[in-house]
Amino acid sequence: MIASFVTAGAAAASCSRSDDPDMDPIDAAAPDSSNTPSDAGLDATRPTDAGFVDAAPLPVVCTSPPCAMQLVTTLGEDEDDRSEGFCTLLDDGTVACWGANGAGQLGRGDDAGTLDSANAARVVGLANVVTLDHTCAVDKEGSVWCWGTGPFLGADAGGPMTTALAPVKIDLPPASKVGLGHGTACAAIGDGVRCWGSNANGQIGPLTADAGDPAVPRPMPIPAGAPVRALSVGKATFVLREDGSLVTWGGNPPLGRVSPMFPDPNPRDIALRGILVADLAYDSACATAGGTGYCWGARVQQNVASETDRALPAPILAPEPLVQIATTRTHALEAAKVQPYRWCATGVSGDVWCWGFNESGQAGDGTRDHAFHAVKVAGLPAPAAQVKTTPNTTCALLTNGKVHCWGSNYNGQLGNGQSRGRSLIPAEVVLP
User: Fold this and answer.
1) Average of per-residue pLDDT across 212-231
2) Total-model pTM
C-alpha cells in the first residue's frame, strides 16, 4: 500500500490562475481548516538516529552530449524576489543557466545585460567547475567564482560587490565547497568553514558591534568532526558533514534544534543523524536520512501564528524511501498572508513526487489542482537523479544527463526557448 505525503504545506489551496509571480495566490479562499491536515501522520517525537535504509541518489551516466551533472536554482536580487531560474553543471566543466536575469544570475556578461532568457547558455568565463551552489562555483583548483547577487570579495574587481553580470573570483584560499545565500556566503576551506557578508540573523557570528568587516571572511567555530559534504546558506547556515551530521547556526527557523538564543550564532549539531542530503530555502529546510524525509522551518498554515510551529525536523510519510527533498519558502512575513509551500522529492526508484502548491502545474501531474497528497510526476523519460523547486517551477536532472522542467515559464525558466506560458508536463531543457 502506498502511503500519502501529508504536510502542513497542503493547508492552503489557491484558486487563482495567474502565472505572474507578483500575483499573490494566497488571497484566494483556503480550504476549511477543520478538514485540513497539519502534519497529519507525522511522528511528533524528535528524531535522533534515523532508521537505516540503503538509499542514495541514482548516478548520472551520460549517454550523449550535452550532459548535465548537477542542478541548482538561481537567486534573485533579495529573499523576496520571486523571479526564478536554474543552472546546471555540464560534464565538460562549464555551467549553463536559464530563466530570470534581473540580478545578472545567468552570468551572461556585462554586454548581455539583464534580460530574462528561455534559452540555456553557458556562464561566461567558467571552466573546470566541479561543484555549484546557486550562482557560485568551485573549480578543480579550488577557486571560488560567483555571479549575480553578492556578497562578493572581488580579488579581480578590487573589493566587495553586490551584483556581478559575469563571474567574480573570490579572494579565498582553495576551497572544496561553497554555499550562497542572499547577502551571505560560506566556503569550506581545509577542515574549516569561512563565511562573509550580512550577519542579520547571526549567519556569520555573534550580533555584536565589533563583528568586524563583513567583507572579510571569518573562520566559523565549528565543532571538530567529519569533512564537509555540502554547505547551504539562508536565514541560517547549514554545514552537512560526510558522517551525516548537520551543524546549524543563525536564524530560527530554520535552525532545526532547540536553542535559548534567537538568533543563535553558535554552530551546533541538530539531533537528526545519518543525513544524506539537506536542502535549505531561506527559512524552510528538508533532509533525507535512512530513506525517510524530514522537513522543518517557517509556518505553512494561515491559522498558525507561531514562528516555531515547525521548528524541529518532522518525518514525512512517503510512497517509497526518499533520497532527496527540495523545498521552497514563503513570500510573506504575516501569518495571514503565508503562501502555500510546496515540495518535491526523489525516491530510490528514481520517481519524482510533488505535493503542495500547483497553481502553474509545478506538481507535474498534468493538472493545476492543489496537490494535497504526493503525486507522481508523469512523463519523465528516465529516472531522476535530482529534483529542484522554485515556487512556480520544478526541474529534474535525469540519470541520462538531461534536464526536464515543468510549471510556470514566466521568466523562461522552462528553458525550452519559449517565453511565458506554462507546461503541465515535463519538457526537456535545450542545453548548450
Assistant:
1) 89
2) 0.87
